[in-house]
Design goal:
Strand content of chain B: under 5%
Order of helices and strands of chain A: HHEEHHEEEEEEEEEEEEHHHHHH
Number of strands of chain A: 14
Number of strands of chain B: 0
Order of helices and strands of chain B: HHHHHHH
Oligomer: heterodimer
Largest sheet of chain A: 6 strands, antiparallel, barrel
CATH topology of one domain in chain A: Thrombin, subunit H
Distance between the termini of chain A: 138 Å
CATH architecture of one domain in chain A: Beta Barrel
CATH superfamily of one domain in chain A: Rod shape-determining protein MreC, domain 1
Structural class of chain A: alpha+beta
Number of helices of chain A: 10
Number of helices of chain B: 7
Helix content of chain A: 25-40%
Chain lengths: 447, 173
């Protein structure tokens, strides 16, 4: 009699294999507090080992294929298709110069933003360190939008690191192996990234759907959202730094499950289907990196040099008298004709006109009135003499300020308050002329 | 009597391949399945591991070998994806078993039969993936009909090309 196990051994083997896999599945799935099932985000040691073996087995042939294709591509691009490179180089250098100037201009805004963030006790993350990697393979499954890169823990990549390209965000690192890593793309159904619409400032969660498209879900109906609106990362998900490009709005559709909500379909900025080189953000810091500081310093220098050149050009177009008028506006008299201005004599333009010393100082003398006498003090020696004449007490000069501070306004020709030593803003002399209308303390001009 | 007839036919027409073919062809299928979507983008509507599973199951005409071949290929595919390990494994296990069971009774040299078999087994495999994910595991898995349909069509067309090439690997007495 033929045993039932022998007769139906095929079916028994099938059932045994299926049962083993079902048990394995049961181990991997967790039930959340809300009663929903989800995959254990952190693979168990056994599961991780299986993934590691599979990846290590597939990686070498993938690297070989990838390097071969890249080699042939580079051979073509670097040795054959080199036309117009010189022109492109010149164009790029111009672009770099222009961008450096723009960067210097934006630097002030960035610094101001950081100061304001500091006031708000909010630290924004800036990209500090990235690792370039090559995409070498994918999962090959429509239900699983993941791909593999050729860098792993040995290159400093960790789980949940953001993966980007120059065009926009790509995904995040889901699993890391010694020499490779698995990246969950943003168009996967289980992915999630906090995003914000640039114009309407609407926030939402970006995820993928079954067709591999990216969409923003959980958005209240808003007719302001239009096609073409730029989508940026919001920075609240602790993975992607704020402000990275995500894509543009393709269309807005009603949420089939909820009436008052809409789904915003987004066209990703990065070419998720044909990824080649990506950047993994391995470190973010709330400050500028050393390299960024060097770039900023370079930009500031170049901006300063350019600004100086522009200023010089403008200055050359002005008359010497105008320059002197700007530097010494307080010594101009608008009521006098130009040929009778005190500075008209250009025989010795560096010499400052001094009022004659009073032979018999009285209460009407400028020295006795304090303030306005100071602008004409040429040097520290005269300053000391004036202080001695005004206040014979030796302690007072020490209280009023340092003598060195008073020499600075003299060099610039700006009036200085005698008591504090502070520079007053230079203004042209108002109305002149008659002693009756002259303000109190105004020094009498003597050309 | 029909069973005996089937056994005799199986013994007569069983195909044999070099040992390396059993190792390298599935590995190549998995590697290409992982690499080609990067080149073809969203037009990569095929499942090479399933095609290879069906081919060896049909050629060997052994449900047990088809079962293990499908299980290995499916688990390998799961290990490379973010899926729970076993989802594709179950689907391809059943596909391998069915392919081998059908291969005992039909003429696997016929191109039309190959085409139809691959199409139906692709649909069955995709259906099993959805069933296991959504109903057995309770996971939120969205899927689209046209993707499943395009994949089935792609598998059928690829099978028409690959099967004659793989036939050259078999050992003739």
């Amino acid at each position: 009699m033929e045993s039932i196990f022998v007769r139906y051994r095929n079916v028994f083997v099938l059932l045994a294999v299926l049962l083993a896999q079902i048990i394995g599945l049961a181990v991997q799935v967790r039930r959340s507090g809300e009663g929903r099932s989800r995959l254990d985000p952190g693979d168990g040691s056994g599961v991780r080992l299986i993934r590691l073996w599979a990846q290590e087995l597939v990686s070498p042939p993938e690297r070989l294929i990838h390097s071969t294709s890249m080699g042939s591509t580079h051979l073509w691009q670097n040795y054959i298709d080199l036309r117009n490179v010189r022109q492109q180089n010149a164009d790029l250098e111009k672009t770099i110069d222009r961008l450096r100037l723009e960067q210097a201009a934006l630097l002030e805004d960035a610094k101001q933003g950081q100061r304001l963030q500091g006031l708000l006790n909010f630290q924004e993350k800036y990209i500090y360190q990235t690792v370039a990697a090559q995409a070498i393979g994918s999962s090959g499954s429509e239900q699983s939008r993941v791909f593999y890169i050729d860098k792993g823990t040995s290159s400093g990549i960790a789980r949940d690191d953001a993966v980007i390209t120059a065009e926009g965000i790509v995904g995040k690192v889901r699993d890391v192996f010694p020499s490779s890593a698995q990246v969950l793309a943003i168009n996967d159904q289980t992915s999630g990234a906090g995003v914000i619409l640039a114009t309407t400032r609407t926030r939402g969660i970006l995820r993928g759907n079954a067709n591999g498209q990216t969409e923003i879900v959980d958005v209240l109906a808003d007719n302001r959202i239009q096609k073409g609106e730029v989508v940026l990362t919001a920075g609240g998900d602790q993975i992607f730094p704020r402000g990275l490009p995500v894509g543009v709005v393709d269309k807005v559709v009603n949420d089939p499950e909820r009436d008052s909500f809409i789904d915003v379909m987004v066209t990703p900025a990065a070419h998720l289907d044909r990824l080649d080189e990506v950047l993994v953000i391995t470190n973010t810091q709330p400050r500028f990196s050393d390299q960024q500081k060097k770039d900023i310093a370079t930009s500031v220098d170049e901006k300063g040099a350019e600004a100086a050149a522009i200023l010089k050009q403008e200055m050359e177009q002005k008359k010497a008298s105008d320059i002197m008028a700007e530097r010494l506006p307080g010594l101009l008299d608008p009521n006098l004709p130009p040929d009778q201005q005190p500075l008209h004599d250009t025989s010795n333009p560096t010499q400052v006109a001094h009022p004659p010393q009073a032979l018999h100082p009285d209460r009407f003398s400028p020295e006795a009135n304090g303030g306005p006498a100071a602008p004409t003090i040429p040097d520290a020696q005269t300053q000391r003499e004036t202080e001695q004449s005004v206040s014979p007490s030796p302690a007072k000069p020490a209280q009023t300020g340092k003598p060195a501070q008073t020499s600075k306004p003299v060099q610039t020709g700006q009036p200085t308050h005698p008591a504090t030593g502070q520079t007053k803003p230079a203004k042209p002399a108002p109305k002149p002329a008659t002693p009756e209308s002259k303000p109190e303390g105004q020094p009498e001009r003597n050309p | 009597m029909p069973l005996l007839g089937a056994d005799l036919r199986r013994d007569l027409e069983i195909r044999r391949y070099p040992v390396l073919a059993y190792a390298l062809v599935p590995l190549a299928a998995v590697v290409l399945q992982a690499w080609l979507p990067r080149v073809l983008g969203r037009f990569a509507y095929f499942d090479l591991p399933l095609v290879i599973t069906v081919y060896f199951a049909l050629g060997r005409r052994s449900p047990i070998q088809g079962t293990f071949m499908g299980a290995c290929m499916g688990l390998f595919e799961d290990a490379l994806s973010r899926n729970a390990i076993g989802v594709n494994g179950i689907a391809k296990t059943v596909a391998g078993f069915l392919a081998a069971s059908v291969g005992v009774r039909v003429d696997v040299e016929n191109h039309t039969i190959r085409l139809v078999l691959n199409f139906l087994l692709s649909l069955a495999s995709s259906g099993l993936v959805v069933f296991v994910s959504r109903y057995m595991l309770g996971l939120d898995l969205e899927w689209s009909w046209y993707t499943v349909l395009f994949t089935a069509v792609g598998n059928s067309l690829i099978a028409l090309i690959i099967f004659p090439l793989l036939d050259r690997l078999q050992i003739h007495d």
